[in-house]
Amino acid sequence: MITWRRLTEEDFPLLRSWLAQPHVARWWHHETSPEAVVRDFGPAARGEEPSEDLLALLDGRPFGLVQRSRLADYPDYQAELAAIVPVPDEAVTIDYLIGDPGQVGKGLGTLMIRSIVERTWVELPDASCVLVPVAAGNLASWNALRKAGLRRVAAGELEPDHPEDDRDHYLYRIDRPTPP
């Protein structure tokens, strides 16, 4: 059973260690200095940013992170995605990582994505869909999205998160279930 809580500044040392892990650093090109983590994650942790940084916990122990935001809160990013695929005003996006290297390759990415999507329908009742861009070369990530029930709806060029990657991305989407 995955549980969730907001990332706090007390979690930053753990987050720094995760961002430095080779399997994370390959796709999350991020500075790991204390100052960089405070700069980039502090506003959301303090509630000053509209996005949410959520720790995923398994049996009470953190193993992953999900960033969740409404695309309308980030109009430049929304416009970048809208150049490839229609983006509803109520669309939500996520980014995610499994930080604990001992938990990689066990299916937790799929479970984490499925869990945050289900929470999104409850916690954000106006969210129409979850739309997730992923680097085309990140097979593990887009495979986890697919297994979690998202479907590939487009392919196009976006600015890569990591300088080693090209601009090729896939966009995955899941729509809010319709009531019976």
UniProtKB/TrEMBL annotation:
Alphabetically ordered keywords of this record: Antibiotic resistance
Compositional bias segments (type: Basic and acidic residues): 159-180
Statement: the UniProt record of this protein carries the keyword Transport: no
Pfam families the record matches: Acetyltransf_8
Chain spans, region Disordered: 158-180
Keyword Cytoplasm applies: no
Pathway entry: Siderophore biosynthesis; mycobactin biosynthesis
Limits of the N-acetyltransferase domain: 2-177
Function according to Swiss-Prot or TrEMBL: Acyltransferase required for the direct transfer of medium- to long-chain fatty acyl moieties from a carrier protein (MbtL) on to the epsilon-amino group of lysine residue in the mycobactin core.
Protein's name according to its UniProt entry: Lysine N-acyltransferase MbtK
UniProt source species: Nonomuraea antimicrobica
